[in-house]
Amino acid sequence: MKRASQFVFRSGRLVSVLAPIIAVVLYPRARWLFGFAAVGVALLLFIILTTKKPTAPDVAALAERLLSGSSGQWDVDDYGHINPKDPQVRELWERTMEVGGLPEEWPGLDEEKKNQIRDIIRSLKQLGVTSE
């Protein structure tokens, strides 16, 4: 099953790369259609360049919501995919995952592990104060 899904995924990428080239050869008058592809690429670049990188206070606030159990619908996924670029924030973010495991399980942790995560959250908040 895994091999079949990998084959389909890879062949889909191949088709998406080859299809415009084949279309230019077969339909040379319809080059204006590739403007849509250029707009799509421009939008992706715009999103990548303007996306706000997560700061230490952002990570701390999200971790606090997860720990208290008052998280929103997508907070667990958001926390799991934060991927902070700052090495100190990244290290603390990874420590929360090591201590608490999956973020959706944090409300049910014992008090010792919750206190460890709270200490990490405090460190994240202090890191945010010192970096401002």
Count of the domains: 2
In which range does the helix fraction lie?
A: over 70%
User: Rough shape?
Assistant: elongated
H-E order:
HHHHHH
How would you describe the overall organization of this protein?
The structure is a single chain. This protein is mainly α. The chain folds into 2 domains: 2-50, no CATH class; 56-131, no CATH class. 73% of the residues lie in helices and 0% in strands. It contains 6 helices and no strands. α3 (56-68) runs antiparallel to α6. The longest helix is centred in the N-terminal third of the chain and has 25 residues, at 2-26. It is elongated, with a radius of gyration of 22 Å. The protein starts with a helix and ends with a helix. The model has no long low-confidence stretch (mean pLDDT 82).
Compact summary:
By secondary structure, this protein is mainly α. It has 2 domains: 49 residues, no CATH class; 76 residues, no CATH class. The mean pLDDT is 82.
Strand and helix layout:
Layout: H1 2-26, H2 34-50, H3 56-68, H4 75-80, H5 87-100, H6 111-131
Helix pairs in contact: 3-6, 5-6
